[in-house]
Amino acid sequence: MSAQSSLAGSPVVAEVDFAAKGRQAGHLRVPQSRDDSGWGTIPVPIVVVANGSGPTMLLTAGNHGDEYEGQVALLDLARTLKPEQVQGRVIIIPAMHYPACAAGKRLSPLDGRDFNRCFPGDPFGGFALSLAHYIDSVLLPLCDYQQDLHSGGTGMDIVASTAGHVLDDAGLQAKTLAMADAFNAPVTMLLREVNAGPTLLAQAEARGVVALSSELGGGGRLNPANLAITRRGVANLLRHAGILDGKPEITTPSRRMTVPDLAHYVFAPCDGIWEAADILGSSVEAGAPAGLLHRIEDPTGPAIPLSYAATGLLWCVRHAGRVKVGDPVAVIARDL
Ligand SMILES: [Zn+2]
């Protein structure tokens, strides 16, 4: 496609030419009409590095704005990746849902939308739906691989993991697992979702792209250890695809796990302050105490004890102290 053009009935305009070789930095300009700027746009930064021949990988972070390991790993890559290192094409979007990223929030300050519930989008549905439609209908068809970099956000902390779905297509499944093995996060989380819903991962899978999501930490902070895992994982994916020279650097092989059912979640039965019994990454037993829920409304009553209903790895924990009824405070994973 030519620069400065929109495609597929999308009002989004790319300042980069996806067919060009070399290194380009620009924006996806997404229309956002305001009272004081009827022709306003929100520019979403994008970097494309292409050279020679080879596959295309789309690397995205900032799908949720309060998840930082992926944003920083992709900013590093966007700064440093040189065309002469590349065989193929790398499309880097470090802060995809830009308004949420700029605000440091999971959801958009424009309209409260969760960007990962906006796919396949709507070209004229407002910022988030319009950008989702562009990514689905223009970018994904260019791609052989897609990696969406998430963390647990402000509310949760998660053992660094890539995340994929159990797929009906055995060939695509094998390629997805090989991609996850190459990323080499401590955990590869495989989830069976009958209807994976309106996520970027589900759209990529539907288009036959070898794709993964991830959960690379959380707590609304940038964890240096998880950032190191993310940086190495992204470089490993590019080596795995043959876009960069060399073999993936594998430390301990990734542990393949799943969260089979709701019994592996502990949910808050009411609002309160969560006091966890165990730290993230602990091995926990069914029936053991998960923690106490303290109710500020009832200073003379007992705290509410909650227990695990499954045995396994404490894969995800509530990070924020205050919880609302129905919030998960712990998620247990078991080995596949
Ligand atoms: Zn996320």
Task: Walk me through this protein's architecture.
The protein has 336 residues and is of the alpha+beta class. Strand 1 and strand 2 form a beta hairpin. The protein has 6 helices and 19 strands. The protein has a 15-stranded mixed sheet that branches. The chain folds into 2 domains: 246 residues, Aminopeptidase; 72 residues, RNA polymerase II/Efflux pump adaptor protein, barrel-sandwich hybrid domain (OB fold (Dihydrolipoamide Acetyltransferase, E2P)). Helix 1 packs across helix 6 and helix 4 crosses helix 6. Helices cover 21% and strands 30% of the residues. The protein binds zinc ion. The site of zinc ion has 5 residues, from loops. It holds the Pfam family AstE_AspA_cat. One of its GO terms (molecular function) is hydrolase activity, acting on ester bonds. It comes from Falsiroseomonas stagni DSM 19981. InterPro entries: AstE_AspA_cat, N-alpha-Ac-DABA-like, N-alpha-Ac-DABA_deacetylase. This is Succinylglutamate desuccinylase/Aspartoacylase catalytic domain-containing protein.
H/E element order: EEEEHEHHEEEHEHEHEEEEEEEEE
The value of Rg in angstroms is 21 Å
Assembly classification: single chain
| Content-based structural category | alpha+beta
Report helical residue fraction.
10-25%
Any idea of the CATH class of the largest domain?
Alpha Beta
Low-confidence runs: 1-5
- Give average pLDDT, whole number: 95
Cofactor: Zn(2+)
Protein name: Succinylglutamate desuccinylase/Aspartoacylase catalytic domain-containing protein
Pfam family, one: AstE_AspA_cat
GO molecular function: hydrolase activity, acting on carbon-nitrogen (but not peptide) bonds, in linear amides; hydrolase activity, acting on ester bonds; metal ion binding
